Amino acid sequence: MSKLPASSIGTTTEEAVAAPAEAEVVAPVEERRETGRERLRRLGRRLRPGPEPVFLLVFLGLAVWMFAPAWSSPTTRTLEGGDGDPAIFMWFLRWVPFALEHGHDLLVTHYLNYPDGVNLMWNTSLPLPGLVLAPVTTAWGPVLSFNLLLVLSYGLSAWCAYLAIRRFAPGHLAAAVGGLIYGFSPAMRVQSHHLHMSLAFLVPLMLLALHEILVRQRRSPWLVGTGLGLMAGAQLLIGEELLAMTALLAFAMFLLVVLTNLRRLRERWAYAAKAFAVALVMASAIIVWPLSVQFGGPQKIHGDIQKTNYSNDLQSFILPGWPQALTWDGAGELVAGFAGGNSAYLGLPLLLVLVVLGVRWRGSPVVRLGLALMAVAAVLSLGPTLLVGGEDTGIPLPWAFFEDLPLLPSLIPARLAQLTALFAGLLVALFLHAVWAGGGWRRPAAIVVAVAVLMRLWPASTIAAEEVATPSFFTGPSVQALPRDSVVLVLPWAYRRTSLAMTWQAEAGLWYRMPGGYFIGPQRDTDQPRFDAIPSPASITFGRIYGGQPPPRLIGPMRRALARDFIRWRIGSVVVGPMPNQQTMVSFLTDLLGREPQVVEGVYLWRDPVVELRDRSRR
After folding, report:
1. 248-275 per-position pLDDT tens digit
2. 388 DSSP β-pair partners
3. What's the pLDDT at 268?
4. What CA–CA distance (Å, rounded) separates 281 from 284?
5. 51: which DSSP letter?
C-alpha cells in the first residue's frame, strides 16, 4: 500500500525532543579519534551539492526559453517594445540607483508627473529588486534588468516552490513537478507583464515558515520568526498586493490549524507566540518607513484602485484558453472573454488527481489542509459574485465580504489563482510521491500522470517581444546637452494609453524631469485614485492628437490655457519623438511656439520654448 511521507504529518514537540535522547542510549561506548582523512571525507559529503542547483538551472532555462524573443537581444528587446506596463517597471528599476546616487527620496519622486510627483508606495515600484539589480541597471540599462527579472521571477518561483514542497513530498522529481505547476502556471503567465506579481518566490517559503510555526515546531522559534518577518518585509518591497494575498491565505491556514487542533493548543501556543512576536518585530523594522510614506506621505490615495471586477469564471478552471497548446476554437474564444482571462486554468487531469488524492488519502492532515487552502484561494479568486460562461449569475461569494474592508478592494481577485496553483502543485507532488513509493507498475503510472498534468498546462508559444525603439537622442550625448534636472515635455504624452516617454526617460538615465506619466495617483481635489496625471488643457490636447483627432484652433483662450500649463510645468525643452500623427503634433507645436524645431538624432527639439499668445495668422 502506498503511503504519504511521514514528514508530511509532522511530529509533536515531545517526539522531536525524545529522538536525540534515544540516539544517546544506543551510542557506542568506545570512542576513537577521527582521522584527518575521515574528517575530509565527512566534510566532502556535507559540501557535495545535491540536485537542488540542477533543478534551479532547469527552471531558469525554461524561463529563458519562455522569454526567448526578448533574450535574442536582451538590452534592446522586451515585452511590448517597452510600452505599456513594462515601461512602468523599467522606469522604477532605473529610479532606485538614480535616487541612491543623487540622494533623492527613494519612495517619492518628482522626476515624473512634475511638479506634483508620484508616491512610489502606491505604485508597483519594486524598490528591493531595483536595489539588488542597481549595478546591472547602471551598467547596461533598465531593459536588461527588466528582462533579467522576467526570467528570475519564473525560475525562482518554481524553484522555491520545489524547495518548500520537499518538506512534505521528499522526492525531488515529484516536488519539481509541483514547482513547475506553480512557477509556470497560467496564473503566473497571465502576470508576465506584472513583475510585482510574478516575483512570487517568497510566497511558498513564507507559508512553509508558517507551517513550521503552527504545526511542525522543530526549529528554534526565534530563527523561524526572524525568517518569516524578514521575508514579509522583503515581499512588501517587491509586491504589496501579493503580500496581502499571502496574508489572507496565511490567516485561513491559522484558522484551519487552530480549529482542528484545539486539544493541542496548550502545548503549542508558547512556541507560536514567540515566533510571531519575533516576526512582527523584524517585519516592522522593514515596513514602518515605507508604510508611513504610503499612508502619510504626498500623493496618497484612498479607495478602490481597480474599479473593474477582474474575477475568475467558474469554467476557467477546466477550459484551456489560447495561451495553452492543447485547446480548441470554442474554448479559446470563450476563455478570451472571461474577466480573469486564463489565469485559473488547471486542466482536467490535474483536477482528477485532486479528486483521487482527496478520496484515497483523506486521512492525511497535510492533504486535508492543502485541499482546504486550495479551495479557499480558488473560491476567493472567483470574486464577489459567481461568473459562469462569462455571465454574472448574481450569486454572492465570500469575496463580497472583503469589498467593504479598507484597502482589500484594491486587490484583483483573479490573481489569487497563483495561490490556487501553489497548493495544486503541492497536492500533485504528494500524489506522485505516494504512487511512486508503491513501486512496480505504479512508477510508470506516476510518470504518465505527471506528463498528462503538465501537458495540459504547456504554453502554446513563447512570450512575444519587440524592439525598444528609443531614439538615439535619449541614449547618446545629445540629451546631456539639455540642462541637468530641467523639465522636458516629451511627446507622445505619457499616460495609460502609451508610456514610451517613460522608457526613453529611463534610458536617458533620468537626466531630466518630465510632466505626465503612467502611474497611480490621486484625482484633483480628492484622494480617489487614477492611473495618470490630472488632466489639463495641454495633456488633453496632446492625447487627442496622438489618437488621430484634429488639433484645436489656437485662438486666444486656448493659447492662454496652454501657456498656463507650460508655466506650471516650468518647461525648459520640448521633444517630439516617434509617434502616430507626428507631423500633426510638430505643426501644432510650431504654431503654438512660433518657431520651427531643430531635428536632433531622431527627435524634434524646441529649446527654451515660450508660448505665442497671439495668433500669427492675424498679424
Report:
1. 999 999 999 998 887 788 888 999 999 9
2. 391
3. 85
4. 5
5. S
**Residue pLDDT, tens place only, 497-513:** 999 999 999 999 999 99
Cross-strand bridge partners of residue 459: 324
Q: Output the pLDDT for position 28.
A: 44
What pLDDT is attached to residue 534?
Answer: 93
Tell me the DSSP string of 443-459. Answer: HHHHHHHHHHHHHHH-B
- The three cell numbers of residue 543 are 492625447
- Specify which residues 532 forms β-bridges with: 518
pLDDT at site 22: 40
Q: Cis omega before residue 290 (within 30°)?
A: no
Which neighbouring-strand residues pair with 324? 459
C-alpha cell at 456: 495540459
Max distance between CA atoms of the chain, in angstroms, equals 111
Burial class (CB within 10 angstroms; exposed 0-12, middle 13-18, buried 19+) of 441 = exposed
| Residue whose C-alpha is closest to residue 272's, from 217, 227, 231 | 217
Residue with cell 506650471: 568
What pLDDT, on the 0 to 100 scale, is given for residue 525? 76
Give the integer Cα–Cα distance in Å for 17 and 13. 6
pLDDT of residue 47: 62
pLDDT tens for each residue of 40-96: 776 666 666 789 999 999 999 999 999 999 999 999 999 999 999 999 999 999 999
Phi and psi torsions of 16, nearest 5°: -65, -35
Find all residues with CB under 8 Å of 567, minimum gap 6, and list them. Answer: none
Q: What is the rounded distance in angstroms from the CA atom of residue 449 to the CA atom of residue 438?
A: 15
CA angle 182, 222, 15 (to 5 degrees): 80
DSSP secondary structure letters along 164-175: HHTTT---HHHH
Q: Which residues of the chain have pLDDT under 50?
A: 1, 6-31, 619
Query: Quick check: bond before 115 cis, omega within 30?
Result: yes
For residue 262, what pLDDT is reported? 79
CA distance linking residue 417 with residue 439, whole number of Å: 34
Q: Report CA-CA distances (Å) from 478 to 369, 482, 597.
A: 61, 8, 15
Contact at 8 Å (CB) between 332 and 322? yes
Positions of E strands within 478-570 = 487-491, 518-522, 529-532
The answer to whether residues 428 and 181 touch, using CB atoms and an 8 Å cutoff, is: yes
pTM of the prediction?
A: 0.90
β-strands 571-576, 118-119 pairing = unpaired
φ, ψ at 364 (rounded to 5°): -80, 125
- Residue 501 phi/psi, 5-degree rounding, is -60, -30
Grid cell for residue 533: 496625471
CB within 8 A of 164, min separation 6: which ones?
Answer: 204, 205, 207, 208, 426
